[in-house]
Specification:
The structure holds 2 protein chains of 2 kinds.
Chain A lengths: L1 H20 L7 H11 L1 E6 L4 H14 L4 E6 L2 H13 L7 E3 L4 H8 L3 E2 L23 E14 L24 E3 L6 H14 L2 H8 L3 E2 L5 H7 L5 E5 H9 L4 E4 L5 E11 L5 H12 L1 H9 L23 E2 L3 H19 L2
Parallel strand pairs in A: 1-2, 1-3, 6-7, 6-8, 10-11
Antiparallel strand pairs in A: 3-10, 4-10, 5-8, 5-9, 5-10
Helix pairs in contact in A: 2-10, 3-11, 6-12
Chain B lengths: L8 H27 L1 E2 L2 E2 L2 H8 L1 H34 L5 H13 L2 H12 L5 H10 L11 H25 L4 H8 L4 H12 L1 H17 L2 H6 L8 H8 L6 H28 L20 H28 L16 H9 L1 H34 L5 H9 L6 H12 L10 H25 L4 H8 L4 H29 L16 H8 L5 H26 L11
Antiparallel strand pairs in B: 1-2
Helix pairs in contact in B: 1-13, 1-16, 1-18, 2-13, 3-7, 3-10, 3-14, 4-7, 4-14, 5-7, 5-14, 5-23, 7-10, 7-14, 8-9, 10-13, 12-13, 13-18, 14-23, 15-16, 15-23, 16-17, 16-19, 16-21, 19-21, 20-21, 21-23, 22-23
The chains are: A alpha/beta, B mainly alpha.
């Protein structure tokens, strides 16, 4: 009788303990949540994703951690950096979390002492290949991934005619029909321009100018240009284009033969964050399963190793990707901004 | 001995004068000072940097072309309309008036968004209709060009030309025209040789106002010129503020703009001074409507054409886009959705805060501007302070300062010690107050002019102070005129973009800057939804204004 009882209790414990400990996903989450609840709300400057995805990520955070409001300000990377710089210069504490797509921003912010270190408990869930992009001193952590690739409108361009590699965009048949963003605003576009210069030299853009591309600001602008059929092909973002395709718009992706640009974008907690505990909780959330489930619904590439990429898109690991080094981005983006302005006049 | 008889209110007037000078002179002085700052003290290097690149000089040239073209197009739009409404028996004048009022309410950047939807080279409605009707390969309209920008800005600015010209035409009695007709001149000859030349000063003055407005505008060029691959001075200044902000170079670059506006404003004042047309002179003379016969339908057609370009077509596409799933899919029922409004109002945390901020900042700025303007107008009219006339020039000075230049001056003055206002609502409120002070001043001045000092003297003879006279006698008389002036400052303040663009932070957003920020993703459905909220809010305020003040408040510049 005693042995049966012991067996039953052990079995019960074996089931109950894992269930019980999964209520809080990581060690110290409860305390962090209690501390964050006192801060009530936080502001997040982000250039990752687009407005809708940022809204969904914020809503997910508010649902998971009731009682804390998430206020996001979504702009392009350079505008976000300009805002945070103006805040810092004037001694204002506005944002708690900063997410840019221009990795060089983080080096500058580290040097200027604008960040505070935090090693997320969920760091183990980060895809191993992305860990190289984290700061060794835990000042910033990779929280988003995506691709810059060739996109087109299927109602005016057939799959056969679509460009297959980056140099195909220089073909005169695309004159007046290409859409791109501007490296002076977008971190995605800045990185793409640096990479194109690295692969093909600045001549690539001199030739691209002959095709008179439509130049916007954010890389997400390419999606609206394609949807409106103002342009037919674009150098666009994988995620935003796919969300639009999911909504029924006639869009398609081309994974370029010479490589899609791999974008790994970090997030950081600001040193003078008005809501530091919420910021830490948010960093855990960005790496966690719930957030990444939301992100893949919006066609972002997940950074959590347990979340699978949905059907209809390829994960960054399956595709040929290229990427400039950190130093190339750091030196390159300010250079290409000026060269771009001189070549395209704007 | 004289000190005992000094009115205690003198301190108040000196305070008002001091506030005025600090508010207006400080940013400009700071701007000038910043433009000559270098790493090693005073230098002209910033001016060299600002004008060394061909791109920068080209932008200045583009601004001048824009200004001249807009002025000319405004005259083409506004003068015939003003003549038609003021002096002929054209039907539908009420409709035309409402459309002009509507044009005044719609901000220029929303107009730009609407025109992108109408005349985008491949996808715009006008081009699509054209290719459908004529079978051509592509439509002829390209909004992303200088002519496109000129059209958008002129369509937005022609109300000034309309109002100025109409006011002038209203004052001309028919005696001159009768004389011409008696001597044998026909309708057109009379109009072109007699009526219009009498209004030439008003037209010229309005041309200058349109020019000044066009070179200082920021929203429409940012949305149209950038994709159109050309820059104007205001977009160039914005570019100088990209990280790292080159405030010194921006200040230096802004100087020619300031110089041009000062010069032209001086010119405009010279023109108007010769023919005072502000107050009614009551000189009598009958004003009869010219009978047009069948031509009145042609004239009405022209008025409808112009107001379609400026109001009806843009509002139509904005409404369509605000309620569309994808604006490109057109006017079908299955394209209708409330999602855009829902996203903008619910999912986007900034919109609600921005709406509150927009109307609160606009309201506070309007009150402050009015109080200050009234004080200064009173000081000048009653000669309470020596050299009082100088104050009236200081009060009108912000008129010549383009909004974006004023913002740079405010940024330079109030983002570093001793007085750090950046990040607070006050820097925005003070910038709006300064920017719209001239409107408040012009109205307060006109209102005060009609009140005879005898009334206040009577109060003072009977033992009351000047302040009592103001409170119990002058104030009540001015109420109606001031309510009108309040609305005239409030409406532009709620949609002001160019001076708000550098001074907003995440916590002090306004709708205009929010709309502009969101335009980087090109999501016209959301932009239209935000624009609709702004216009609806403004219309609600205007209607409230009409109820408070009566029909006349924006029609005449006379006092009660």
């Amino acid at each position: 009788m005693r042995q049966v009882l012991a067996l039953v209790v052990t079995a019960a414990l074996a089931i109950a303990v894992p269930v019980w400990s999964n209520a809080w996903a990581f060690d110290g989450e409860k305390e962090l949540y209690e501390a964050a609840k006192k801060e009530k709300q936080f502001t997040w400057y982000t250039a990752h994703y687009d407005s809708e995805t940022a809204a969904a990520v914020c809503n997910g955070f508010e649902k998971k951690y009731a009682g804390i409001k998430c206020e996001y300000v979504r702009t392009t990377a350079q505008v976000a950096y300009q805002r945070v710089s103006q805040d810092m210069k004037a001694g204002l504490a506005v944002a708690s979390v900063f997410s840019s797509t221009d990795t060089s921003h983080y080096g500058h912010m580290k040097k200027d002492g604008w960040l505070q270190p935090y090693k997320p408990k969920n760091l183990g869930e980060l895809i191993d290949g992305f860990k190289a992009y984290n700061d060794p001193d835990h000042l910033f952590v990779a929280t988003a991934a995506g691709l810059v690739l060739i996109t087109y409108n299927t109602s005016v361009v057939s799959e056969k005619d679509a460009p297959k590699k980056w140099t195909d965009l220089l073909d005169p048949k695309w004159k007046g029909k290409i859409s791109i963003g501007h490296p002076g605003f977008s971190g995605y576009v800045g990185t793409w321009v640096v990479q194109m210069r690295k692969s093909y030299g600045w001549d690539y853009f001199k030739k691209l100018e002959v095709n008179k591309p439509r130049i916007g600001r954010s890389i997400n602008d390419t999606v609206t240009m394609l949807n409106a059929r103002e342009s037919w092909v674009a150098a666009g973002p994988s995620a935003t284009t796919l969300i639009s395709k999911d909504k029924g718009n006639p869009l398609a992706l081309v994974y370029p033969e010479d490589g899609a640009i791999l974008m790994i974008s970090p997030s950081a907690i600001l040193k003078n964050a008005p809501a530091p505990n919420t910021a830490k909780l948010f960093m855990e959330y960005l790496l966690g399963k719930e957030c990444n489930d939301i992100m893949v619904k919006f066609r972002q590439d997940p950074v959590n190793k347990t979340v699978k990429v949905p059907a209809g898109m390829k994960s960054v690991a399956e595709v040929k990707t290229i990427r400039p080094t950190y130093d190339e981005i750091d030196k390159g983006i300010p250079e290409v901004k000026e060269m771009f302005r001189d070549t395209f006049g704007i | 001995m004289r000190w005992r008889h000094l009115d205690r209110s003198l301190l108040l007037w000196l305070l008002a004068a001091g506030v005025l000078v600090a508010l207006v002179a400080n940013p400009i002085a700071r701007l000038l000072w910043t433009s000559v700052q270098g790493t090693g003290g005073l230098t002209l290097d910033n001016y060299v940097t600002a004008f060394s690149r061909w791109r920068y000089v080209e932008a200045l040239g583009n601004s001048l072309i824009l200004g001249l073209s807009v002025g000319a197009l405004c005259a083409v739009f506004g003068v015939p309309m003003a003549w038609a409404v003021s002096r002929t028996d054209m039907p539908g004048k009420g409709l035309v008036w409402i459309a002009v009022l509507g044009t005044f309410i719609v901000p220029n950047y929303l107009s730009a968004v609407a025109w992108i939807l109408l005349a985008g080279p491949n996808a715009g409605w006008l081009n699509r209709s054209w290719t459908a009707l004529t079978g051509a390969a592509a439509g002829p309209f390209n909004i992303y060009s200088m002519p496109g920008l000129v059209l958008v800005v002129a369509a937005s600015s022609f109300p000034y030309m309309f109002v100025f010209t109409r006011s002038a035409l209203d004052l001309i009695s028919s005696e001159m025209e009768d004389a011409a007709t008696t001597l044998g001149a026909g309708l057109w000859r009379t109009t072109l040789r007699v009526t219009l030349p009498l209004t030439l000063p008003a037209i010229l003055a309005a041309f200058i106002v349109a020019f000044l407005e066009a070179i200082a505008i920021f929203g429409a060029p940012a949305l149209i010129a950038l994709p159109g691959r050309f820059q104007v001075v205001t977009t160039m200044l914005w570019q100088f503020f990209e990280f790292p902000p080159k405030v010194e170079v921006a200040a230096a670059y802004a100087m020619p703009l300031l110089a041009i506006t000062v010069l032209l404003f001086w010119l405009q004042q010279r023109i108007i001074a010769r023919k005072g047309y502000i107050a009614l002179t009551g000189k009598g003379g009958e004003r009869r409507m010219v009978r047009l016969g069948r031509w009145r339908w042609v004239v009405l057609g022209y008025c409808v054409f112009v107001t379609s370009l400026s109001f009806f077509l843009p509002m139509l596409v904005v409404l369509q886009a605000a309620f569309a799933k994808a604006w490109g899919r057109g006017f079908s029922l299955d394209n209708l959705t409330l999602h855009n409004l829902r996203f903008v109002l619910v999912d986007q945390p900034l919109t609600r805060a921005a709406t509150v901020h927009t109307f609160v900042y606009g309201g506070v700025a309007a009150v402050l501007a009015l109080v200050l303007a009234l004080a200064i107008a009173y000081i000048v009219r009653r000669g309470l302070v020596p050299y009082g006339r100088v104050l009236s020039y200081v009060a009108m000075a912000p008129f010549v300062i383009p909004g974006i230049v004023l913002a740079i001056g405010f940024y330079a003055s109030y983002t570093s010690p001793p007085l750090v206002l950046y990040g607070t609502a006050w820097i925005l409120i003070l910038a709006f107050t300064t920017r719209f002070l001239p409107i408040a001043y012009a109205n307060s001045d006109a209102a005060l002019r009609s009140i005879n000092p005898e009334l206040e003297d009577a109060v003072r003879i009977l033992g009351g102070g000047r302040l009592l006279a103001l409170r119990r006698v002058v104030g009540p008389l001015l109420k109606r005129g001031l309510a009108g002036a309040f609305i005239l400052v409030f409406i532009p303040a709620t949609r002001e973009l160019s001076s708000a663009i550098f001074l907003c932070t995440a916590g002090t957003q306004v709708l205009a800057v929010l709309l502009f920020d969101k335009s980087d993703e090109g999501n016209f459905e959301y932009l239209s939804a935000i624009g609709l909220i702004l216009v609806a809010g403004t219309v609600a305020m205007v209607l409230a204004g009409f109820r408070l003040v009566g029909r006349d408040f924006m029609l005449r510049r006379t006092a009660t």
